[in-house]
Amino acid sequence: MGRFDKYNVDLKGLKVASLNLEFDLDNAFFGDIDGEEFQKGTVKAVVTVRKNRDIFDFTFALNGTVVVPCDRCLDDLEVDVETENTLRVKLGEEYADDGDIVIVPEQDGDLNIAWYLYEFIVLALPMKRVHAPGKCNHEMTGKLKKHSAERDEEDNDNDEQAFDPRWEGLKNIQIDEDN
Fold it and tell me: What residue ranges do the domains of the chain occupy?
């Protein structure tokens, strides 16, 4: 039995019009999926599959927390995840994913949703992932401030050197606001 076999949904053998599945995604799941964004967390996934003739509508309701590196100090940061996503699936000749609908080969007849679970969590994460003010690693933020201050001084020196004296004459131009 493979690591992600329990995430296979047998579409071909689906006898009911609606199926509810529940998964508890934990550190083992995220470590096995080997994604780049994060590898720790606890997320409850409720997946509903509705069969409508030859189309299968999946609804993914995900709720929990994942641990990502802070963008500022690189320490672990827990981020809440709460999202609902949909996926349309159809049986066909060969596998295809054009964004609107996923086509699963009819001879296989099943879809493994493990990667979709991970991707929907990644999409729910905020772009900027930082600790609340004052909660970042103080040693790292001190180093950032030190290096940022040096860079600011260098930038100011470069700005003064880059000043073009030909623009000096513009300071003497008076604008007549009546015209």
Answer: 5-124, 132-164
Q: Which residue has the higher pLDDT, 112 or 177?
A: 112
Beta bridge partners of 70: none
Structure pTM? 0.77
pLDDT at position 87: 95
Question: Rounded to whole angstroms, how far apart are CA atoms 1 and 123?
Answer: 29
Between CA 41 and CA 151 the distance in angstroms is 37
Q: What is the rounded distance in angstroms from the CA atom of residue 14 to the CA atom of residue 83?
A: 26
